[in-house]
Design brief:
heterodimer; A: alpha/beta; Rossmann fold; 2 domains; two-stranded antiparallel ribbon; elongated; B: alpha/beta; eight-stranded mixed β-sheet
Chain lengths: 294, 592
């Protein structure tokens, strides 16, 4: 867990990065409340888009009177819809996210960054803290006042090592659903990915990882404590075992990448050891999960 | 192949196993790390099912390598030996060459052939070494062919006396080391042999009758022999004997019966006109003493002359008459009885010198003292009454043999040619000196010594293997000497003499005759007979079988001593592999 002082520092770092990077809201069409992003439908913005014949119920303010004068037909001027994006942020609160200082810092920074980024573009932001089958909404105020750690510790799940059940968080329609999780749980990725995509949503997964788990320097005998359950596991780590572990690690995230690609969900692993901007720029921007702010 | 651990104490090396486990457990405590990828680790390695403590070892390759190293080291320490198919047992047989082995000679090869497999033991092959019980003699056989070993026994002829075999057994043990088999092949039982040697006795108690000695008497011109015949057995024995002379002439067999363990004496004459004859018994198992060659004994003679000493005529006559080895000189002289008048040069010859002059005509009295000399050893002079003293006085170099107070009575002098002279400083014509037994013995000793060194012909009876040096003159040229061994039937065998023949020349080991001549002149005619009664007594012969080849010897013989090298190599490889694994998993080296 992060202390208040650490969270304040994380917020500062994330706010700074959010000035340079933002969620890829401008690269796609959104549906939602009026805002400053181009919507998927016809709107009332100043940007002319097309013409069509008048239908009863159309807004008479958009009748092209000049065309009516020429043709005697009511012709409607269609303008691009400008909507306010909807962002649902899901934060995996399993202990694996917070057991290592590096990963917990990077997770905290990601949450602050994503919230700041959404807030900066005026998106409708809804945040949820999820631990397995336990879900708790997170308010922006709670986040910005750094009380969310306390709320997170109140979460209790039957199996804290299970996959976060995003469907319990009630994601909104047409929302861009962002999941911050290390994905270090057993099971099929498909349910999680499908939850990100349901109800015309689009999904993004930010997956923080540490060098210790990706390329551990284990040798000899270890008493491994499972960060999720607190159980002890004795292992003698030989070079062969270490090699097989690395293969399993790569295979695990290979499956996630493959599933995300198949379901058109953005996926990026965010290393914990570089600074936040470097990590996001090298990994999330290249993966298309973030874009440079105009 | 059977595996034999020749050093069971090496199993103590197994104590290293619990020590290794303890060290490993204490040293390699688990590092506690909190991780979030346990489920991935499970895929890479099964979790310990045996519990935490033993999981230290289940997954530790270095531990198992070190454990294997301890086991290999323990295996080496136990000095494992494989009994190979090709195993060699070294067998040394020290054979008793005493004459009592003669009865075994005909059957010894067959008897030994049946016992060689037991001596060979479990070994597939054997190497043999056959040594005489006299260690200075050459080896009778050395090789790995048992038949050749047995064939070599045909050249073996046991004629020695009893000899302590320990020197040969020591030599045998030194040749084959502690792992070989050393066997003393004899015909009798005895005390435990030294140097882990085993006794193989093939003897058998047998009744033996044989000649043990002979003496001669002269009855006028006739020589009478007295031969002693002995029965060595515990039962009465009957034998027939004959007297044979050259030309295969023999007397009618005469039967005699000898009581158990008793002697009888046979007597007879040497046939007239014969110089050699031979007594022959019915042959029995021990043949060496079944014949008794004889020659009429005749000592070597010194020719005695009397010169310028009429007062010593009595002594001259006594010596001619009483001493066999003294003969009157005709042309050449070996010994002179003489006197040396005052002022004349000393004579140069073997001489007995005295003087009949009586300067003062007095008889001296006083205390008699005898020198420590071979000529006067054991002689009693206390009843000597000397005649008057003569003018003879000692000169430097003389050896006084007898004193009367401070006055030397008898002197031993050597002239410039090293001829001995016996000088009396008192008159032999007076007093009782010539009647005194001590004087007779002294004169006999002196004259016999001179006669022995003459080159006159002699005849005598010798025992087998007797050293001949004492019977020969001192000055002989070995190149001029001719020794011939002969039999009664006339067959003769010349024998070459070595330059050191005085220390090596012996009578033959078997009964017979010999002739020794120098430049064609006969020096010695001798009959040789067997007289070793210890060897002729076969009643104590016995059979003793050796133990089977000891197991320890077989193991050592049959071991493969190269196996430890492979195990040592395996330990070295294990150490390198363990070092590689320990070194390669060092976190520092990994990050570097």
């Amino acid at each position: 867990m992060r202390t208040r002082e650490q969270l304040m520092a994380d917020l500062t770092a994330a706010t700074g990065v959010s000035e340079s990077l933002r969620l890829p809201l401008g690269s796609q069409l959104w549906k939602g409340q009026a805002g400053e992003f181009r919507g998927a439908g016809v709107g009332s913005s100043v940007d002319f888009q097309d013409h069509r014949e008048y239908s009863p119920g159309d807004d008479p303010r958009h009748i092209n009177w000049q065309a009516y004068a020429r043709t005697g037909q009511y012709t409607m001027k269609l303008y691009r819809e400008e909507v306010r994006p909807v962002v649902d942020l899901f934060v995996d609160c399993s202990q694996s996210m917070w057991s290592e200082p590096g990963k917990s810092q990077r997770t905290s920074e990601l949450v602050y960054f994503l919230a700041s980024s959404a807030q900066r573009v005026g998106a409708s932001l809804q945040m949820s803290l999820i631990l397995g089958d336990s879900v708790r909404p997170l308010t922006l105020e709670s986040l910005m006042t750094h009380r969310w750690m306390d709320e997170m510790s109140d979460l209790a799940s039957i199996d804290p090592a299970s996959a976060p059940q995003l469907d319990l968080a009630r994601g909104r329609s047409n929302a861009i659903r962002v999941l911050v999780s290390d994905l270090l749980f057993e099971g099929d990725p498909a349910p999680v990915i499908r939850s990100l995509k349901e109800r015309q949503g689009s999904g993004l997964i930010f997956c923080p990882f540490t060098r210790q788990e990706a390329d551990p320097e284990w040798t000899g005998h270890y008493d491994f404590i499972d960060a999720e359950r607190g159980s002890h596991h004795n292992h003698q780590i030989s070079p062969g075992v270490l090699t097989r572990y690395l293969a399993a690690y790569r295979a695990h995230f290979g499956i996630w990448e493959e599933e995300c690609r198949r379901h058109q969900v953005g996926f990026s692993r965010i290393a914990a050891h570089p600074d936040l901007f470097t990590a996001l720029h090298e990994q999330a921007v290249r993966s298309g999960l973030l874009e440079l702010s105009p | 192949m059977n595996l034999v651990l020749t050093n069971p104490w090496g199993l103590l090396g197994l104590l290293g196993v619990p020590a290794l486990i303890l060290i490993y457990y204490l040293r390699r405590r688990a590092k506690v790390v909190t991780i979030s990828t346990v489920f991935l680790l499970k895929k890479a390695q099964r979790e310990s099912a045996a519990g935490r403590r033993f999981d230290h070892f289940n997954n530790s390759l270095p531990f198992w390598l070190q454990l294997l190293g301890i086991l290999l080291l323990t295996f080496i320490l136990t000095q494992p030996r494989y009994e190979k198919n090709r195993t060699i047992q070294q067998i040394v047989i020290v054979i008793d060459s005493s004459a009592s082995m003669q009865p075994l000679k005909a059957t010894l090869a067959d008897e030994l052939r049946s016992r060689l497999p037991a001596l060979q033991g479990d070994a597939e092959h054997a190497s043999f070494l056959l040594l005489d019980h006299e260690p200075r003699r050459p080896r009778l056989y050395q090789g790995d062919d048992p038949e050749a070993l047995l064939d070599s026994l045909s050249q073996w002829n046991p004629t020695d006396g009893a000899l302590d075999p320990r020197a040969s057994i020591r030599l045998a043990r030194s040749l084959v080391g502690p792992s070989g088999v050393v066997v003393f092949l004899t015909d009798h039982d005895g005390p435990t042999l030294p140097f882990s040697a085993q006794r193989l006795a093939l003897g058998e108690a047998r009744a033996n009758v044989g000649f043990t000695g002979v003496s001669f008497e002269k009855e006028g011109e006739v020589v009478v022999w007295n031969a002693i015949l002995r029965n060595y057995s515990d039962a009465p024995q009957s034998r027939s004997w004959t007297l044979e002379t050259p030309g295969r002439e023999r007397t009618e067999p005469t039967s005699v019966t000898i009581p158990p363990r008793k002697f009888i004496t046979l007597q007879g004459r040497i046939p007239e006109g014969q110089t050699r004859c031979l007594l022959r018994l019915d042959p029995d198992a021990f043949v060496l003493d079944d014949t008794l060659p004889m020659v009429a004994p005749k000592p070597r003679v010194a020719r005695l002359a009397l010169e310028n000493a009429p007062g010593m005529k009595v002594l001259y006559d006594q010596m001619i008459r009483g001493f066999e080895h003294i003969a009157p000189a005709v042309t050449e002289t070996d010994l002179v009885l003489t006197t040396t008048p005052e002022g004349e040069d000393p004579i140069s010859d073997h001489a007995l010198i005295s003087d009949t002059a009586m300067p003062d005509g007095k008889t001296a009295f006083g205390r008699l003292l005898v020198a420590d000399h071979a000529l006067v050893a054991g002689l009693n002079w206390q009843s000597l009454r000397t005649g008057p003293f003569t003018t003879l006085v000692p000169v430097p170099g003389d050896t006084p043999l007898l004193w009367l107070d401070e006055k030397p009575l008898i002197l031993l002098r050597y002239d410039a040619a090293n001829h001995p002279q016996l000088i009396f400083t008192f008159s032999l014509a007076f007093g009782n000196a010539l009647k005194l037994p001590a004087m007779v013995v002294l004169l006999h000793r002196f004259s016999e010594g001179i006669a022995r060194n003459t080159t006159s012909a002699s005849s005598l009876v010798l025992e087998t293997s007797q050293l001949l040096a004492t019977e020969l003159p001192e000055k002989l040229d070995h190149e001029a000497l001719q020794l011939t061994l002969s039999s009664l039937e006339g067959t003769s065998t010349p024998v070459a003499l070595e330059s050191n023949f005085r220390s090596t020349l012996r009578a033959p080991a078997t009964p017979g005759f010999l002739s020794l001549s120098s430049q064609g002149d006969s020096l010695m005619e001798a009959a040789v007979y067997f007289a070793d009664t210890r060897e002729a007594d076969l009643s104590q012969a016995a059979a003793v079988e050796p133990d089977r080849a000891p197991a320890a010897l077989v193991e050592t013989q049959s071991s493969d001593t190269t196996i430890w090298r492979w195990f040592a190599l395996a330990i070295l490889i294990l150490a390198l592999v363990a070092w590689y694994f320990l070194g390669s998993t060092n976190p520092q080296s990994q990050s570097a």
